[in-house]
Amino acid sequence: MKDLSNIVQHLVLWYQKNARVLPWRENTCAYGVWISEIMLQQTRVEAVKEYYVRFLEELPTVKHLAEVSDEKLLKLWQGLGYYSRAKNLKKAAIEIMEKYYGEIPNDYHKLLQLKGIGEYTAGAICSIAFGKPEAAIDGNVLRVMTRLYADDRDIMSKTLRKEYTESIKQVLKCTQPNIFNQALMELGATICLPNGIPKCEQCPIKQHCKAYEQNNILEFPHKAAKKQRRIENRMMFFILCQNKLALHKREEKGLLSNLWELPNALTEKTSTEQLLYWGINYNNIKEMGEAKHVFTHIEWHMQGYLVFANSFENTSNFVWVTQNDLQQEYALPSAFSKYIKKGWDMV
User: What is the C-alpha to C-alpha distance for residues 90 and 312, in angstroms, rounded to an integer?
Assistant: First the structure.
C-alpha cells in the first residue's frame, strides 16, 4: 500500500484555488453527481456542460428519469454517443424508484448493483455526494498515480487498481473525501495530461513525483497495445420522398441497439442493387462523399448517397419523417451526422 499522506495538503490547497467552475460542482446532490459522471465517461468536459444543464432541466429527479419516454431520453442524449449509458440510466432510475423509493442509496455496494454503475461511479457518488471514504479511480487518477510512483505495471492491471484503491481509501479517512477525490481527478484532467503535454511545472505535488524526479514522465502510464479495430465498409443512404426522409430502427441488440439511423448496408452490393433490395423506386441518385466514424471496436468507412425516391410503397422497414420531426423527435447517433447535414444542404 502506498502512503499518500504527504500529498494531501498540497493537492487540496491547489484544488481549492484552481478547480474549474463546472455546473455539476454547484450542487453536489447524488442525482447530479450520478448524471454527470455517466455523461463524462469517454466524453470531454466541454462537450458535457450544455447536455448536463439541459438534462437536469428536463429530468430534474430520479422519478422524472424513470418515467421519461425512450425517444425523449435518447433525444436529450443525442450527440453524446455511447447510447447504452442513457438506457442504463433509465433502467437504474426505475430500480431506484422500486427498491429505494426514489432515493439514491448512499451505500457503495448497493450502488454497484444498479445498471450502468461501476466501481468508479459508485465511488464518486459516495465520496462527492455523501462524503464517504470511497475511492473514485478513473483513467486520470491512474495516470497521476503511476507517474507519482513511476509504476511501470500495466495501467489496466486489476492488481494495480486494487492497490491504489486501498491507498486512496486509507488517506480518505483523514481528509474530506469529496475534496480529495475531486482534486486527484482535476489534477489528471488539467495538469498531469496524457500524450506528451503534462504541465509538470504547475503541478502542486511534483516534489513527490518519482517520474518527474527521474525526468521520464512520458514513459508512464504503461498500457498494453490495443487490438486493431475491425473495418466495415458501409453505404449510407439519405433517401427523400415528398420532402420526407427515410429512417430505419436498428436491432434491439448489438452496436447502436434500438436507435434510429439512416438506411445503410455493407458494401456487398452496389448502391443501385441495395436500393432495389429495399424496394426503393427512385429517379435520381447523387454521391455524397466519403466519411469515417470510429467506435470502440469497429471503424466505419462510409460512402454516402442522396436518393430521390418516387414513392413510399414497399418500404415497410422505414419510417418517413420531416426535417422538423427529425430535429424535434428522433435521435440519431453522431455516426450519421455528416450525411444528415450534407443531405439537407444538397436538397
Answer: 35
Q: Establish if 37 belongs to a structural domain.
A: yes
Same domain, 164 and 249: no
Site of grid cell 497521476? 144
273 is catalytic: no
| Residue 3 located in a structural domain | no
- d(CA 308, CA 275) in angstroms, rounded, equals 11
Q: What is the largest CA-CA distance in the chain?
A: 73
Q: Which of 26, 37, 46, 261 is catalytic?
A: 37
For 319, the 3-state DSSP assignment is: strand
Residue with cell 427512385: 282
Tell me how many degrees the CA angle 180-184-189 measures, rounded to the nearest 5: 140
Placement of cell 487540496 in the chain: 12
Q: Express each pLDDT in 24-66 by its tens digit.
A: 999 889 999 999 999 999 888 999 999 999 999 999 999 999 9
- 181 and 235 belong to one structural domain: no
Q: What is the model's pLDDT at position 177?
A: 96
Model confidence, pTM:
0.87
- Cell numbers standing for residue 306: 442522396
Choose the final residue of a domain: 219, 244, 264. Answer: 219
Cell triple for 270: 452496389
Domain count for the chain: 2
Give the mean pLDDT of the chain. Answer: 94
